[in-house]
Amino acid sequence: MSLQTFTYSGDFELESGAVLHGLEIAYNTYGSLNKSRDNVVWVCHALTANSDVLDWWKGFFGENDHFNPDEHFIVCANVLGSAYGTTSPLSQNPVTGSPYYLAFPEFTTRDQAKAHVLLANELGIDVIDTLIGGSLGGQQALEWSIIEPARIKNLILIATNAKHSPWGIAFNESQRLAIATDRTFYANRPDGGSKGLKAARSIALLSYRTYETYGITQQEEDDTVTDSFKASGYQNYQGQKLVNRFNAYSYWYLSKAMDSHNVGRGRGGGDKALSMITARTLVIGITSDVLFPIEEQQYLFRHIPKAAFAEIDSFYGHDGFLIETEILTKITTSFFKTDVKGKIIELQKIA
């Protein structure tokens, strides 16, 4: 289905106390609600993705995939602050009549989850059969499952964490430093900070993949090469690719939202917060993930009451959650056949 937009008529108060007026949420839906209205699969997307989940998670979501529109009513909403239709730094500031740019209020993953709640209410969805997200999407899904445990029946968390780590924050800050070196970022124009964004994406890629990934995919075949390396070209290409479809302001704010992620904030700590989750939960970690190391998913598994755990040994590092769709399908299929009581799903048994 084509992109739709919901406009919230009330005032949306952020965790900081700032208020957004006329919040708009862009979203896609696929399939139809069944008579019992219990076939909802809600996807929370990652940092620079959009609400068209059938496009960016092919092999896992699609006409002939595990999550398909024939069986499920699939919903994916563009997150608060993103570049694809939901209220963001490039939206019009009602006070000035111009885009917010850096006057946009800072928000958290908790705020992003609360925006999802508004849309679910608008769509008349009382029960979500499966809430799923990876990376930043997993952080949102965690927050939502704590805010409204009764609404979420099953929860799937992939390559994510309960609290963003100093390591992850350092990566994000390094990217923001790169953006800030581009003077156009402060020029209040839609393409401001583009060169900085290109550099930021290059930094981010190093955390999404691994030494081994680059060693094989970007290895030079000619030992006489002394410049213009494949790895250099790859970094430039991927950086420009993001510049062509995103903007530095959304990237800046979304990275700060990721840094803010801490389910234990105001809830007595992470252990207590995770104990509030009542959904049957599948936690999936990637052994080669350097950005969200597997011990972070093991922590989630240990502290969420009804949880199962599986590992993926992926060549692609953190990006494996987007690429290893065949393995994700096998793990997810096994999960829905399992009576979850702190059970570990062994990948070797289902691969």
How would you sum up this structure, described in words?
The protein is an alpha/beta fold and 351 residues long. It has 2 domains: 4-163 and 263-349, Alpha/Beta hydrolase fold, catalytic domain (Rossmann fold); 168-258, Rna Polymerase Sigma Factor, Chain: A. The chain is 36% helix and 15% strand. The protein has helices at residues 53-56, 109-122, 136-147, 166-180, 194-208, 211-217, 230-243, 248-260, 270-274, 294-303, 320-323, 325-336; strands spanning 4-7, 11-13, 19-21, 24-30, 40-44, 73-77, 128-134, 152-158, 280-286, 307-312. A hairpin with a 5-residue loop joins strand 2 (11-13) and strand 3. The longest helix is centred in the middle third of the chain and has 15 residues, at 166-180.
The proportion of residues in beta strands is 15-25%
* Content-based structural category: alpha/beta
CATH class call of the largest domain: Alpha Beta
Please bin the fraction of helical residues. 25-40%
Low-confidence segments, ≥5 residues, pLDDT <50? 347-351
Overview features:
two-stranded antiparallel sheet; 2 domains; eight-stranded mixed β-sheet; 12 helices; Rossmann fold; 351 residues; Rna Polymerase Sigma Factor, Chain: A; alpha/beta; disordered C terminus; 10 strands
Quick synopsis:
It is built from twelve helices and ten strands. It has 351 residues and is of the alpha/beta class. Helix 3 links the parallel strand 7 and strand 8.
Task: Summarize the helices and strands and which ones pair or pack.
Layout: E1 4-7, E2 11-13, E3 19-21, E4 24-30, E5 40-44, H1 53-56, E6 73-77, H2 109-122, E7 128-134, H3 136-147, E8 152-158, H4 166-180, H5 194-208, H6 211-217, H7 230-243, H8 248-260, H9 270-274, E9 280-286, H10 294-303, E10 307-312, H11 320-323, H12 325-336
Parallel strand pairs: 5-6, 5-7, 7-8, 8-9, 9-10
Antiparallel strand pairs: 1-4, 2-3, 4-6
Helix pairs in contact: 2-3, 4-5, 4-8, 5-7
